[in-house]
Structures are given as structure tokens and as C-alpha cells.
């Protein structure tokens, strides 16, 4: 399983690992060269202070997901969520009397990657008249959208729906 961290989490984990290594090194050197035993709580407070200081630098943003938020909250740190680009209100409208509305969509993890597409057919009373879902394989997003549109038009033609709103 591969992990990909956003900027804030990457800085957080790098700083944490760095400070743990430095603290262990500091404790070891105190033990060997100074013959002093360093309290574990002191070493932990060094790590904690450095990590919270790194978070205050304000480098990067977290992904807007619960996992990142829970990790940061577990360490008592505040998340810096990404700013929303644009929020648009979308209202679904049924088609006119005698028409069929087709809503298509596609999904994937990255581009190009294994993809799939689906479509739903609605009548003027918002009843579902049919639907489809197909796995496609390794293609780009544009190809997936074209395939979904082609499949929707083909399905509408076979069902003898001549007045469609895509």
C-alpha cells in the first residue's frame, strides 16, 4: 500500500522522525559522554515541542479528509484545510414532457487508470427509466466521458427514446 502525504502531513511526519532521531542521539550522547541519565519525559517533551513548532510554521495544507484531521488532532495540532475553489449550487431539473434526461458520470483513481462509467435515464416525472454501468479499463478521462455518452445515446436509441436530453 502506497502512502501519499499532503504538504502539512509531510512536514509533520518529517519533523517528527527527525526530532525522534535527534532525541535518541542526544540521550545516547548524554549517557555515554556525560554519564547522565536523561528522563524519557524530557526527551518526549523535546520531540513534542519541535513538532508543534514545525506545525506553527504554517507550511502547506492538509487534504480535506478525516484521516489527516484525526492524526493532527491526536497530537493536539490544528489542521490547515485547503481553500475551496468555487462552490456552485446545482439543481437537477426533470426534462420536458415526452423527453428522457440522461445523466452520465465516470470514476477513476488517477489518469490514465482503470475506469468505469455509468448513466441514468429519467422521464419528465423524475422516474428512473433505465441505467447502465460498465468497467472500461486503462483509459484517460476524456475517453471515458466519450464512451459514457456513446453508450447512453446507443441505449436510448435501442429503447426507442428519440427525444433525449444529455
UniProtKB/TrEMBL annotation:
InterPro entries: RNase_H-like_EbsB-rel (IPR052929). It comes from the Eukaryota. This is RNase H type-1 domain-containing protein. It comes from Dipteronia sinensis.
Amino acid at each position: 500500500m502506497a502512502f501519499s502525504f499532503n504538504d502539512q502531513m509531510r512536514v509533520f511526519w518529517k519533523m517528527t522522525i527527525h526530532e525522534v532521531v535527534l532525541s535518541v542521539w542526544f540521550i545516547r550522547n548524554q549517557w555515554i559522554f556525560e554519564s547522565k541519565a536523561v528522563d524519557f519525559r524530557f526527551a518526549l517533551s523535546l520531540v513534542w515541542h519541535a513538532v508543534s513548532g514545525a506545525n506553527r510554521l504554517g507550511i502547506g495544507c492538509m487534504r480535506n479528509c478525516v484521516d489527516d484531521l484525526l492524526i493532527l488532532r491526536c497530537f493536539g495540532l490544528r489542521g490547515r484545510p485547503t481553500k475551496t475553489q468555487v462552490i456552485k449550487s446545482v439543481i437537477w431539473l426533470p426534462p420536458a414532457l415526452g423527453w428522457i434526461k440522461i445523466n452520465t458520470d465516470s470514476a477513476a483513481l488517477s489518469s490514465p487508470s482503470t475506469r468505469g462509467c455509468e448513466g441514468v435515464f429519467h422521464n419528465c416525472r423524475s422516474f428512473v427509466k433505465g441505467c447502465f454501468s460498465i468497467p472500461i479499463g486503462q483509459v484517460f478521462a476524456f475517453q471515458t466521458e466519450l464512451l459514457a455518452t456513446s453508450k447512453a445515446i446507443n441505449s436510448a436509441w435501442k429503447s426507442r427514446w428519440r427525444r433525449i436530453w444529455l
